[in-house]
Each structure stands twice: as C-alpha cells, then as structure tokens.
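Board work, copied verbatim: Putative sialic acid transporter
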Amino acid sequence: MTSAYEYLEARFGPSIRVIGSLLFVLFHIGRVAIVIYLPTLAITSVSDMNPYVVASLVGILCILYTFLGGFEGVVWSDFIQGVILLGGAAAIIILGVVHIQGGMSTVVSDALEHNKIISADNWKFNTAAAAIPIIFLGNIFNNLHQYTASQDVVQRYQASDSISETKKSLWTNGLLALISAPLFYGMGTMVYSFYSHESALPKDFNTSSVVPYFILTEMPPFVAGLLIAAIFAAAQSTISSILNSISACISVDINHRFFGKKNEKSEVGFARWMIILSGLFGFGMSIYLIAADSNDLWDLFLLITGLVSVPLAGVFAVGIFTRRTNTFGVLMGLIFGIIFAYIFNGMGGGNSPFYVSIISFIVAFVFSYIISIIVPGKQKDITGLTIYDIKEKSNYVSIVRMKEDDQEV
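↓ predict structure ↓
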C-alpha cells in the first residue's frame, strides 16, 4: 500500500478515494502556508528584514530540499529536532522563571489571577473556547484524523521495519505528547507573566511571535541561535514530509489510478513537478497570511482541520466499524460534515474551534450510516476491510486487499 486512500477505494470505490486524497492535499497545502509563516515571524519580530523575502527564502529552500531529497531522512530529522524543541521549551521556562521577580510564585499568581490555570468553570460542558470537555473531545477527533487518515503519518508507518516497531513508535509518541503539552502551555504562561512584569512588548506587536521574540531578546546567544535554528529545521522537515506526501497522493491516487503507470523516469519527473507545484501553492498562501498579519494561527489551523480533515476521519471510521455503509451514503456524510461544521463556525459567539472538529466527525459518521441504510447501494465484497474481520489470534489485519488487476499494494 502506497496511499492511505487506497483503502477508501477498496471499501467504497474510486470516487471516495479521489475525494479523500484531494481533501488531504488541500488541507496540507494550507498547513505548508502556516509552517512557512511561523519561522518568518520568528525572524521579522526582532529584525527589520522584509517578511516577504524571508518567506520566499524559507519556501524556496524547503521545496528544493524536498525536490532533491527523500522521505526516510525526514523521520530522523523530525526526532532530533523534536528533542531540541522539547529541551528548548524546558530551558525557556527555567530561564524565564529565574528572571521574574518572585519566581514561580509570581507565575502561579499571575496564572490564577488571569484565568491561565484550569478552574471549575473550565469543566462545564459548553461551547466556550476554554471548556476542558470540548478541548478533550476535539483533540481526540483531531488526532483520529492525524493517525488514521493523514498520508504523511501513514508514510511514517511504512518507514518502520515491522508492525511491532510501529506500535512502539505510537506508544512513545503518546508518552511524549503527555510531556510536551504541559511544557508548551507552561512556557506560554511563563512568557505571559514575564512580559507582565519584567519587560514590555513593542507597540502593535503580533503576539503569534512572542515566543521567538523572547528567545532572541532574553536568552543567551548560543541557546537562542540553537533554538531558532531548530525552529527553521523543524519547518523544513515538516514541509518536506508534507510535500512528499502530497506528491505520493497525486501520483498514486490520481495519476496511476486513472492514467496508468509509465516508465520510472516519467514517474519520478511527475512526482517532482507535484512537489514544486504544491510547494508554490503553499508559499502563495503564506504570503496571504503575512499580508493579513494573522494573530490566531493556532485557531486557524484547528478550524481548517475541523472543516476539511476531520470529516475524512469520520469516513475512515464508518468504513472500518460498520458493514452497511455504501459509496453514496459516505459521499453525503462527508458533504454534510463539512457543511455543518462551516455553519457552526459561522455562528461565532466565541465557540471553540475544537467544537467544529467534534461536529464534523459526528455528522460525517452518522449521516454516512443513516443515508446508506435509507438509500442502499450495490453490495460489495468487504471481507478484510472492517474491524469484524480481525483474526482472534492476530493483532494485525491488512486493510487493503490485493486485486488481480494493476492496483499496487
């Protein structure tokens, strides 16, 4: 199996496969834009460099790196950069606390006074952005998308030597997530306290770049240089992974599927052109973000995830956990999931972007199942394609079956 969306064709047909692949491509082109924009903020927040020039350099270098490189090196570079960034977050917290008068007690006091720490109100089940139940459920659905319906993660599974190694990496990732969440939220709280007491941010400062600004203005030069280099390296690695995945999806799910395979030279050339084109589209969107001077990048990312990607996770889930769904039902479920999420987001009123993810997943799943029952389609052989076919003595089941035609698994 090359593409995650080959499963969708085996389960529902080629149309759902193509739609799933295109949704992945659209979402990750937007993600490329955000990843280019972030290191651009890191540099321009403390210098007079033109942000458009910085974004151009970041974008062009990342496209060239991906064009010339491969995928497996991305996995190791991700690991090294992750270690540096986690260590950097811990160093930022420690250094910041040391320089705040009153130390940790001041940070805790500020957090309590300005509602930066979880309170009883946060546990109430409502649509507010700070509601813990909504954050918890929203993260579940966002991660369901990432680990089941996203080609860039599936390629990491494929880079593993065995199923057991893949399982180990997933457990390790879960452990690191438990460590990284309090680290990064704690870093944000510390920076908030620091600039409330010890220093002031420049007038009309874009708060999306407050952490890079702290790194470059308050930390020792060597540490600051290492962390900023890690931010740029992480951006390069992330973009490389995304562009490789986009290229694989377009090549396998569209070009191979509908136009057939060609000689190796033509295949490589086509894949590289897809890297260039998708990289340029992402770069163009990053220019738009710079012009808009967006202050809410995290909320924007969550919103795009909920609107475009999480409904796709709902389609994978309904395919795996039900037997009666069909192509028409899934197509309608996907459409309704996106529409309902868009309508809810348009209501405004301080609703959490996580709520968009919850609604889009549930609507996609439920509507897919109900419409499939109301409008039954042609029966397909789905042996081996649902959870009910897992062997009792086996911990793994292949979700894509080899066909006798020219499909590659």
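DSSP finds 14 helices and no strands in the chain.
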